[in-house]
Amino acid sequence: MTVALDERGITVAATASISADPEELLVGDPSAWLVVTDLDGWTHLGELCDLVRSVRLPGVVLTPAPRGGLWGALLEAGAVAVLSADTGSDTIEDTLRDAAEGRRGHTPSEAEGLIAQWHLLRDGRERMHRLVRSLTAREYEVLELLYDGATVAEIAARFGVAQTTVRTQVKSILRKFEVGSQLAAVAAYDRYLRPPRS
């Protein structure tokens, strides 16, 4: 990436990890900055948003995360543009130049829509976090095993209990998650662990 930008007349003044001191990114008095991240889920999202918030320059983020809520989180944190990791060099260059000149990379309605998606995603995760915390230790173990693909019979055998006991625990999970099936509970838990891919 550094070579490609240099070849286009964009000087890379510093490179750093997302846990870097924001001052490290201001070496050479840049007019904009580019974050290239492998963000594709919840891992490091908070750290990345903190970095975006703390660098007082127009920032552009290049990420494999699908367009949606995670992009909205980055925009809300202060990024002026979020681009897909497969974006071409010309577009990256144009976006960086626009950012340096004070132009945003998304229309106001586009940014508002992405931020609204982020709020829904964040609120859903917070709700799911509360629901997961409401499970007993055994219900949580049962949920984890269901998530890993275990059947009720396999879970019962593992814990040395009757299948009816496990079914009772599953029913409790379904009631707490406000869903009607094991599949729906596992899908809700999956969304809690990893944001949707669309």
How does the SSE layout of this entry go?
Blueprint (H helix, E strand, L loop, with lengths): L1 H6 L25 E4 L8 H10 L4 E5 L5 H9 L1 E6 L4 H12 L7 H26 L3 H11 L4 H8 L3 H15 L4 H12 L5
Shape: elongated
Q: What is the beta-strand fraction?
A: 5-15%
N- to C-terminal distance: 26 Å
CATH architecture assignment name of the largest domain? 3-Layer(aba) Sandwich
Going across the biggest sheet, name each strand in turn. Answer: 1-2-3
Low-pLDDT runs: none
Question: What is the assigned CATH homologous superfamily of the largest domain?
Answer: Response regulator
Largest sheet: 3 strands, parallel
Q: What is the chain-wise order of helices and strands?
A: HEHEHEHHHHHH
Kindly state the number of beta strands.
3
CATH class of the largest domain: Alpha Beta
Structural class, from helix and strand content?
Answer: mainly alpha
Computed over alpha carbons, the radius of gyration is 22 Å
Helix content: 55-70%
Domain count: the total is 2
Output the CATH topology of the largest domain: Rossmann fold
Task: Offer a concise description of the structure.
The chain contains nine helices and three strands, in the order αβαβαβαααααα. By secondary structure, the chain is mainly alpha-helical.
Protein described:
The model has no long low-confidence stretch (mean pLDDT 88). Helix 3 crosses helix 5 and helix 8 packs across helix 9. The chain is mainly alpha-helical and 198 residues long. A three-stranded parallel beta sheet has the order 1-2-3, sandwiched between helices. The protein has two domains: 116 residues, 3-Layer(aba) Sandwich (Rossmann fold); 60 residues, Winged helix-like DNA-binding domain superfamily/Winged helix DNA-binding domain (Arc Repressor Mutant, subunit A), CATH 1.10.10.10.
